[in-house]
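User: Modeling request: complex.
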Amino acid sequence: VETNRDRLACDLAVSADSSQGSEDQPVLCEALRGLCGLQIDVRSASADLHSGVMGGVAPNAAHALVAILGSMRDAEGRVLVEGFYDDVAPLGAEERRALATVPDDTEDTARAAGIRALSGEPGFTPRERNWARPTLEVNGLWGGYAGEGLKTIIPCEAHAKVTCRLVPDQEPRRVLALLRGHVEQHAPAEVEVRTVPFAGRSDPYRIPADHPAMVAAGRVLTALYGRAPLLVRSGATVPLPAILRRSLGVYTVGFGFGLRDEHIHAPDEFIRLASLEKGRRAFCMLLEELAR
Amino acid sequence: VETNRDRLACDLAVSADSSQGSEDQPVLCEALRGLCGLQIDVRSASADLHSGVMGGVAPNAAHALVAILGSMRDAEGRVLVEGFYDDVAPLGAEERRALATVPDDTEDTARAAGIRALSGEPGFTPRERNWARPTLEVNGLWGGYAGEGLKTIIPCEAHAKVTCRLVPDQEPRRVLALLRGHVEQHAPAEVEVRTVPFAGRSDPYRIPADHPAMVAAGRVLTALYGRAPLLVRSGATVPLPAILRRSLGVYTVGFGFGLRDEHIHAPDEFIRLASLEKGRRAFCMLLEELAR
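Assistant: Request completed. Predicted assembly structure:
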């Protein structure tokens, strides 16, 4: 995008990577979270050690990893990395009121996913935590013996993948630097710890709710569904809107017709023919509305 | 053994599962550590979740596992499970003096194993920690994504294998009960946690240094090497001596000729022909000495 700025010059981008609330309820998405993350590699010896022969004297890479990860997030989900929340734009009372007007089906979604109880940062509603607050998650961890039964070793290496979802005005590069600094500072002295940032990084994105394209899209959706769209956010990440905003100076309006049960990103992802038809009409109407 | 008590009745057992200090220095081993352990299985949802769509509201099995493991052992290696040290026979001043007379090559062994610095329970020497204090080690842990690059999931399961080395007068069954109780008590409420004890369990074992068989073995080794054996312990576990002591009421004297560099338990384990020859002579001498 940066290399072809002149050729790409425009007033607005429209992205179909968005969704309906339901077949009867349109939504307009005003915010996407950003993303950054790293892998943590711990080494405590050149090979796995006998836990009898060396137990009590040799450092254990798995325990060192546990100590590092335990220092990054508390039991409730609050991120403990110093400075992590510094650039997070505070949620105003007006904004919280607006978020609260959107019906929240998080409990239903959680139940369907086999979750026993919701968890997350105290002091915020589930919607606020998912849409407007940053998170830190261990996506995977491994080290030592994972086969049947027991193997009495002291593992010489342990690894974890950690990613953060970001919100305005956090910058992925700055958050990565904070994460790496935190890991270095909390690495036990008796082990070697390396951090490797992931190439996949994205700024958080937000479009003003009263942007002319949002108003136009809202008019189209209202005409199409006979019902005004709800203003929502997404906890997920789409890198392109932030890239276009930064490189071309334009906003992207999300205008899509996926539904939640369509196995998004899975090998058996699908879209209903009715949604394709609805989208075809909607895009034509949007072009006319924007031209006006 | 229990089923064949009468057929196995005897005064003493002799086990070749022991070793030399070096080719010039005999040792007699007076203690072996015991063993018990369990697998910890954490589940937080029925499938891995999208860390954008559910991040901030869904519990994370990996973080729950980290919290549990972090509660079991502190940064220095002290076990935090309540009651874990209750049955540990205290190390007397005389005993500590005796342990301190054995040359300690732990630093060299650690350096050869690529260890940056020793670690372990404060207040005890490396020898004491390895020979006479119990330990708790994570032998392996896994959960979530462990492939190349990043995958932004909230893992729905995470697992760890944990074993303890035990010393007199700890009992494996009692320690297992303490471990399971601890895990239950520290399991975050929003996840399911199951513990599965390993079948492999062993009592710690100790033979009095002045037991007649130890005296006899000492005489043989002194004659053979021209040098008195050092009285040592082992941080490792051999279940049989404790089983024979419990079922038949007899002690086992360790009388073996392995050397430390012989890749014990590895596929390329070996023994020097000179050690076989030494052992052949030593066992004949021991039978004569015991008969006397």
